[in-house]
């Protein structure tokens, strides 16, 4: 069994379902987000670019 040694974290945006590796997460205010849009709180109501995500502020 190969061990995948990557820590995964869910995006802190409430509506976002993305889970990203900690190393790739966008950190803002001590929280981890999947992308800049989520980290900024979707100021332009732009959606997450990830399929399946309904978050857009
Ligand atoms: Zn997302
Ligand atoms: Zn997100
Ligand atoms: Zn979001």
TrEMBL record:
One of its GO terms (molecular function) is metal ion binding. SUPFAM superfamilies: Metallothionein. Pfam families: Metallothio_Pro. Keywords: Metal-binding, Metal-thiolate cluster. Coiled coil: none annotated. InterPro entries: Metalthion_dom_sf (IPR017854), Metalthion_fam14_prok (IPR000518). The keyword Metal-binding applies. The keyword Metal-binding applies. This is Metallothionein.
